[in-house]
Fold:
Amino acid sequence: MEVSRHLSLVNNLDEIIQLGEFVEEICETIHLDAESTMGMNLAMEEAVVNVINYAYPEGTTGDIHVEAHADDTSLTFVIRDSGKPFDPTAVKEPDTSLPAEERPIGGLGIYLIRSYMDEVSYERTTASPKGENVLTLVKKLT
Structure:
């Protein structure tokens, strides 16, 4: 079964509800179990919240486009924004062996994304005049 869907959001945390519904609809359509759906939702929420919080200057509105593609072998989400360049794949792994109070703030969201998804890739394109961040998250289904 092949599925393709698109969702457009703005950089506002209120949009996370819509994102969650979008991810759940895709997962339900391809018959993912509840645990996998929850993990997918967590990974996507972490990725999109990073865009909402950091991609655009405070007080400005920016678009976030989410594409979902699924077939019999994988589920792929592509997140696009025209905010400032940021490559989450270049962020170092946090030291999870340290007690929580000794760890630096941040980085756990990206760690969760990497832990749940089978492939995470980033590209900065010239698709728009300002450039575009393209984050691709892939979960293998077989």
Observations:
- The mean pLDDT is 89.
- The CA atoms of residues 99 and 108 lie 13 Å apart.
- The two ends are 13 Å apart (CA to CA).
